[in-house]
Amino acid sequence: EFSRQRGLAPDSRCKPFSDAADGIGWGEGAGMVVLERLSDAEANGHRVLAVIRGSAVNQDGASNGLAAPSGPSQQRVIRQALANAGLDASDVDMVEAHGTGTRLGDPIEAQALLATYGQGRDADRPLWVGSLKSNIAHPQAAAGVAGVIKTVLAMEHGLLPAILHHDAPSSHVDWSSGAVRPLARTIAWPEGPGPRRAGVSAFGISGTNAHAVLEQYVPAAAAAPVEGDGVPWLLYGRSEAALREQAARLSAHLDAHPEQSAAGIAHALATTRTAFEHRAAVTAADPEGVRGALAALAAGEEDAPGLLRGQAADGGTVFVFPGQGAQWAGMAARLLDESPVFAERIAECEEALGAFTDWSLTAVLRGAEGAPPLERVDVVQPVLFAVMVSLAALWRSHGVHPDAVVGHSQGEIAAACVAGALSLEDAARVVALRSRALGAIAGRGGMVSVARPAAEVAALIADRSEVLAVATVNGPASTVVAGETSALEELLAACERDGVRARRIPVDYASHSPHVEEIREELAGLLAPVTAKAAEIPFYSTVTGEPLDTTRLTGDYWYENLRGTVRFERATRLLLEHGHRFFVEVSPHPVLVSGVQDTAADAGAPVVAVGSLRRGEGGRDRLLASLAELHVQGGAVDRASLFPGGGGAAHLGLPTYPFQRQRLWLDTSRGGSPAEAAAALGLAPAGHPLLGALGTLPDSGGLVLTGRLSTRTHGWLADHGVSGSLLLPGTAFVELALHAGGRAGCPVVEELTLENPLLLPEQGSVELHLAVGAPDGDGRRTLAVYSRLGADAEGPWLRHATGALTPDAGPDAGPDPEPDAALDPALDPADAPGTAWLPADAEPVDLDALYGAFDEAGYQYGPAFRGLRAAWRAGEEVFAEVELPTGLPGGAGAFGLHPALFDAALHGTFLQGGGRRRLPFAWTGVRLARAGAGAVRARLTPAGQDGVKVVLTDRDGRQVASVDGLVLREVTVLREVTEAQLRDGRAADPLYRLDWTAPAAAPAASGTTWALLGDGEGAAGALADAVAATCAGRPARYPGLAALREALGAGGPVPDAVLLPLPPADGPVTADAVRAAVRGALGLVQDWLAEERLDGARLVVVTDGAVAAGADEPVRDLVHAPVWGLLRSAQTEHPGRFVLLDTAGASPRALSAALSAAAGGDEPQLAARGDAVRAVRLARLDA
């Protein structure tokens, strides 16, 4: 429709509201904006870019078509939007118009703007009109959102962008009828009494009109500063590379925006970023430390001050509550002032403990004068209980919720309380009264920690079991013994004598030993009122070492908890077996973290074990660091909770995510696995990404390997271009040869010569054929590589490479080569990282300059073939570090030596060749020592004229591959090679030509009745004579088709065939003459098809020189040449109804034969030349 109405711009450029406007230029696009209620956005601290003051939508209804919208409807939608916004037209500064650049649509839109916005405003403050379509054409469905985005950006920058391609305002618009002006140039946004405002119009092809009024956002009050000093900076990435780039971007951002606060940046990082799997946390407290940590992260360092790193994983979370030993003077005192959640829970604990104690919990924590010391067991245990329960509440407030709990000794009381099995009051009763009862056995015993497995320790004290007992088993080699003081002294002496690490625990009583039996009766009475209930969280008992029904946590259980052995290691192993990964020790100092880690290591289970506070670090900053330590390993954390009252703080603008721009190739496999496809053909799978099947020749023992290549199935090959053509890299031929040799038992490519490059078509595929010959007396085999177009199953093969494969690996190559001493004779493999492997005189190469020179030389290398990471020159030698880009399908592991990696390793030959464009030509002595390398170090040593020796090693100096000799040849014009391939029968796209040849013999037409249309005796007379010679009778003559139809209406006979001669036109060949001839022929064809009485007849249209029937034959009748094109279309639509016959220079004999073929044969196009008759055929150009 647009084309018919001439609504498309010839130059595909939209020229809105310009006198030069000549139609639309089409584009494609998509846009996205985030909408949120203003109050919600402000409450959530989101950055508001603009405000939608009002909008409206209506419909044209009946109109005059796509290019003629309704002006009144546009006026109505603008007025409705202004009314909804509560604004006058003069309050709006500019309109982003629909403005497509059509000569009809633009004036209608301009008049609507003049009639609405252009009235009642000062001439010196006109409405400015712009259109983004002059920049990006008409992106169709994305036009409206694109206009919104442009307008918001213009508001933000205070500029009104010009309309491009604007020579002068359209003369089809009466601009004097209102104060509206198109933006012929970019100007500053006019300052006014209110905020900046703009309208945005969008009109749909169906007649829908939309208009929105946007307004600059002016916050009602200054944004509240973020509260969150000390909150770690959290960084995320989908990959290690993205995480490192994120750190580098953030570091640069700090330099550019010193005004941004650390808390504000932490808030934005924590609340506006997706928590991807690769994670890091910067915990440094000062600016220099932050910069150092970011620099270390950007450089890929694993360990640096103030930096935590990890990779997220799944698993359950366990809260671990230790027994005595985590206490220290002043523990958690700072949290009382810094954390309302912690302080509130401590207050609840103080109230619950107050019923059983005569001292103040808060006073003990703050170290107040007169408060009892922590050395008292009846003080330290209740205080530790309160701190652990309150820390658990603090962890939960930050979104860390336990999937299970486990306690150690008296820590089980806190675990039961947190799990919901004991009320706070009952838990307080147990811990307070039980610790008071311990006073009866204080001063007569103690405990010793021994770094040996429990079984060994039990054997060590077996002869003193009446005075010593295994009290706790904390890990695979961490056991605690309790008992009489004198017996413990003897144990310590024995351990020292035997070289066993052992230490005394600072307690003066022997819990988990027979000493506890003395207070059993007392505990039964004190704890009788305790009521247990089913836990809300699974409770793993260290009394039994298994999950426990918590309704059993009555007085008897708490006696067993104090008397029996603590089976912490057993409970930990079971938790790990049940899928728990994250262990959070909820205590003022970690004492069980190492035991958890040791148990997990012994069990071979992954684990993340973190503490809460540490001795001497009892504030919120330490807890935040522990939260970060958990989170970077995958622990779930409510990141918004890290900022007290920070919900309404404005988010700072930070660098966006560093997309890695990886190529994500589609999986093009069809119809089952390669092995199944090969088996269906009676072949074996080739086992290689570039090959599909392998067959063995039974008579000779040779092999055939086949495959199919295309840029669709092997997209990375599209990154290897030379002089505008896609070439299979020479390294791919080597990889194919190595694989074929490996399958044939000849792993060494003795020689390989590349005869013709393999050009990959932009469309379609190429078939590969590798022929491996039978072994000779020495086991040596020949190799040849062929290809042909995949769409041409009968096409010729072109040979690309020939070579020889040998089973002899040579004296220098063993099955497991040692580190390559040739790189540096003094180098130890352990020193390989860095540049220690290079000669002392090696000079670095500027890779940007190198690849720039590649581009200028005609190498078009995409990302897959830009694997150089560093390069050096040392004399005539070149050294390089090469790495295969991530994201390539199959990666390095599917190849012996990935062609892209190998090709990049040879890029240093460009330096040795003086910048000449050279390609691999001949290879000798290629050996592969290690398959699947993803990164190599290369040494390229000149070897003769245009030759080089290649050694590839891994980072430890072990050989990956070697080439005794590679000869490179200069390529001047690659198109010459392409032409040679065409001459050999190989073309990227087959070309065809029309070939006129003798038709098959037609049956005799002696019984055919003919009619002849036309007067005169020239061409018509000759045709009449030819009919008479063919059918023994002259044709019926009619002046035209109308006369024939009249005769048929009068009862005349229906002819079998009708001749219509079109003699060459008189006078010069003009466009009018051609149009007249085609129109006349079209009308006659239509009349012929409309006459049902002639459905069984053929119309033979005869021309004289309107078509060339030979390579050197001219077309004399140019006027009627287009008639052949018209009639060919008619023949396609109505087979058998039309025959085209050209008779230039035909003898009477040929003319008679042609008429016989036209009447009785199946040839739709014929040419009579001299004494011969020819029919047209399609023939390949190279045939």
Keywords for this entry:
1183 residues, alpha+beta, Peroxisomal Thiolase, Chain A, domain 1, 30% helix
Mean pLDDT: 89
Rg to the nearest angstrom? 45 Å
Count every beta strand, where a strand is a DSSP E run of 2 or more residues.
45
Helicity, as a percent range: 25-40%
Question: What global shape is seen?
Answer: elongated
Which second-level CATH architecture of the largest domain applies?
A: 3-Layer(aba) Sandwich
Q: What is the rounded distance between the termini?
A: 44 Å
Poorly predicted residue ranges:
810-833, 973-989
Largest sheet: 14 strands, antiparallel
Task: Look at the helices and sheets and give the structural class.
Answer: alpha+beta
Strand content: 15-25%
CATH superfamily of the largest domain: Malonyl-Coenzyme A Acyl Carrier Protein, domain 2
Main sheet: strand order: 21-22-23-27-28-29-26-34-37-36-35-33-32-30
Q: State the helix count.
A: 32
Q: How many structural domains does the protein architecture include?
A: 5
Instruction: Give me the CATH fold name of the largest domain.
Output: Malonyl-Coenzyme A Acyl Carrier Protein, domain 2
CATH C-level of the largest domain: Alpha Beta
Pathway: Antibiotic biosynthesis
GO molecular function, one term: fatty acid synthase activity
Biased composition (Low complexity): 803-813, 822-836
Region (Disordered): 801-839
